[in-house]
Amino acid sequence: MTDESQQLESITQKEYKAGFVTDIEADSLPPGLSEDVVREISRIKGEPEFMLEWRLKAYRHWLTMETPEWAHVHYPAINYQDISYYSAPKKKDDAPKSLDEVDPELLKTYEKLGVPLDERARLAGVAVDAVFDSVSVASTFQDKLAEEGIIFMPISQAVHEHPELVEQYIGSVVPYKDNYYAALNSAVFSDGSFVYIPKGVRCPMELSTYFRINAANTGQFERTLIIADDDAYVSYLEGCTAPMRDENQLHAAVVELVANDRAEIKYSTVQNWYPGDENGKGGIYNFVTKRAACRGESSKVSWTQVETGSAITWKYPSVVLQGDNSVGEFYSVAVTNNMQQADTGTKMIHLGKNTSSTIISKGISAGRSQNAYRGLVRVTPKAENARNYTECDSLLMGDKCGAHTFPYIEVKNPTAQVEHEASTSKISEDQLFYCKQRGLDTEDAVSMIVNGFCKEVIRELPMEFAVEAQNLLGLSLEGSVG
Amino acid sequence: MLEIKNLHASVGGKEILRGINMTVNPGEVHAIMGPNGAGKSTLSNVLAGRDGYEVTQGEIIYKGENLMELEPEERAQRGVFLAFQYPVEIPGVSNIYLLKAALNAVRKYNGQDEVDAIDFLNLVRERMKLVKMDEQFLHRNVNEGFSGGEKKRNEILQMAVLEPALAILDETDSGLDIDALRTVAEGVNALRAEDRSIVMITHYQRLLDHIVPDFVHVLSEGKIVKSGDKELAKELEKSGYSWVHDAPEGQTA
Q1: C-alpha distance from residue A52 to each of A46, A163, B159 (Å)
Q2: Is B197 part of any domain?
Q3: CA–CA distances in Å: residue A112 to residues A14, A18, A22, A182
């Protein structure tokens, strides 16, 4: 091995900073999954009948399904009876009414993670929903948003306060039959965020959810539902971390987005679940179904994701372009290191006329990791004048990792224009030497080169998130110009 | 400034430099000329500390320090600058970002604060005039899609911003038309200073018409076979490298 690749190796092995455990009393269900567990979760949440019925249908369907095995990832079979499906910080009485009633240990946890929930301390312009293990522990700015008619609350609360909206939309984008993990999630989901932006309203601040898995042997199954009604706009951010534990933990979330006429949803994720140690011990299995429906004409949904964590990532944020002139975008940076595995990408389903989609995927592999892009572009027979542009770039660091690209293109309408570009490169010794000869140390040089590689994606992120993402990528962009 | 003593270096086990001796004082401009394969680029890479160039004998003393013990970035921070023969493209990284990162790395070594954004922009704008570069270059990705001339001018711009004590120009004239050559040479001439030494490595005499050196050395088969003043270069132009090659070793013009 050359010096350069040794240096690359050492700097790509950084510590996981969010790996602490919060010592907090929790109410958990014992491990195991059965119809009774599903009923118990629904009972704890005091859910209306329709919700329980839906969960049970999902559970019964899940029993008939098999684990998907087509992804380019390898792991021992998961025993679903070893997982606890519900864990919540113990509360004195009822749910906290305000931040003052939230356990100070919890507030400290989020501060440590750089997510202060104190509304005054929070940078103006971001409302936060914090989900700790299975429940939402704090939602900020709810009242202020309510003035605009915007609903931003834990989905468990929305089930009570806006059952008609939940019943109308839940499962309408990702049906419980969709796939194995979506069915499991539908049966046992415990919390997540719910957002409704009424007609003509531009959400005045970024909405964000911060997910934290704390308890051991617990799965996190959150469900997020965002609806932007006609002419509405919302930008939503999602961040995730978990403590370092030797066991693998399952995270099987479902995110559904609905954009009506001329509505726009921008959904950004910085995913930093614990990736396991350098030998592949521990880490989160991140098996997530994210899908958006551009229902209305000229609607637009944009997914931006920076995926750095998780032992295994299996996730394809997709857009179903139903409305004429609707637009779908997917910008992704997926970083894998050590023994991490990622199989991620998107699906763009063109149904309406004059629909267009853009896919920019940047995969960075280091250590002994495996990083796959898997993407589907489908143009259906009625989708006149559909456009797609796909760019998939892979960057390899070192010589023990792998990058794979699996593009699927199905075009059933002759007016379609579909472009696909792919590249694979290495950080060259020439580039490193050039930067070092200008005085940059190896770490800064790699940061700079990686940052350059991801630039098209990072610039899609809201400002504050971009900073977090750059730090995560090991980039120091202090004092960046131009 | 720079003292090279009996320098032997090999690449991939093959000895390329076979005992180079050379002294460069502050303010001097030295030209190193020689035919292809003489070891010119090896010398510049060894001075800059590139991986894969192994020094087997001898020493390089820069400002009283043993240069060979320093990493490439440490040499750069101490004022050793190499203008590359083939400048490297860095996709997605703007020119101005690299310039600023490089300047701050040098400033950090010198115990200075990071450069102020406005001061930096003013400095860069002023230095760009030296090489007649347009401001839009700052926002283009480093060397990406640059013409040969633009790349070389960009190297000189970096030199102008970093203000090194020792600049090594590796075949800075190669691939340049006469106008671009003149621009680059004017830039370098403007950067000549009492406290700055320049080592120019070139195959051709024509660069030396524009940047007139104080000393000329002829490198052949890994050794300096002849040293002299600028007249030596003209002699070479007239008679070709075979002339020095045939001359007895150690004889000076």
Answers
A1: 10, 13, 70
A2: yes
A3: 18, 8, 10, 31
Domain presence at residue A482? no
Question: B98 and chain A: CB distance < 8 Å anywhere?
Answer: yes
Chain B contact probe: residue of A360, A423, A434 with most B CBs at under 10 A: A434
Q: Which of A2, A360, A438 to mutate to test the interface with B (most CBs of B within 10 A)?
A: A438
Number of domains observed in the structure of chain B: 1
Please report, for the domain that includes residue B209, its CATH number: 3.40.50.300
Residue pLDDT, tens place only, A402-442: 889 999 999 999 999 999 999 888 888 899 999 999 999 98
B91: nearest CA partner in chain A:
A452
- Does residue A113 lie within any of the structural domains? yes
pLDDT of A216 reads: 59
From A429, A437, A444, residue closest to B101, measured CB to CB? A444
Domain that holds residue B223: 2-246
Residue B219: strand, helix, or coil: strand
For the stretch A6-38, pLDDT in tens is 555 555 555 666 666 666 666 778 888 999 999
Residue A300, domain member (yes or no):
yes
Q: Would residue B253 count as lying in a domain?
A: no
More confident residue, A114 or A278: A278
Using the Cβ of B57 and the Cβ atoms of chain A, whether some distance falls under 8 Å is answered with: no
Work out the number of other CB atoms within 10 angstroms of the CB of residue A380. Answer: 17
> In this predicted model, what pLDDT tens digit does every residue of B11-31 receive, in sequence order?
999 999 999 999 999 999 999
Mean pLDDT computed over every residue of chain A: 82
Q: Do the Cβ atoms of B92 and A439 come within 8 Å?
A: no
Using CA coordinates, name the residue in chain B closest to A458.
B92
ipTM: 0.94
Number of domains in chain A: 1
- Cα(A147)–Cα(A151) distance, rounded to whole angstroms? 10
Please provide the distance, in angstroms rounded to a whole number, between the alpha carbons at the two ends of chain B.
25
Q: A88-92, A171-175, A360-364 — which is least confidently predicted?
A: A88-92
- Two structure tokens written together for A141: 């700015």
Domain range holding A287? 3-477
| pLDDT bracket for residue A120 (50, 70, 90) | very low
Q: Which chain B residues are Cβ-neighbours of A439 within 8 angstroms?
A: 73, 76-77, 102, 105-106, 109, 162
Does a structural domain hold residue A152?
Answer: yes
**Shortest CA distance to A259 belongs to which of A183, A126, A169, A330?**
A169
Calpha distance B68→B72 (Å, rounded): 9
CB contact under 8 A, A452 and B93: yes
Please report whether residue B251 resides in a domain. Answer: no
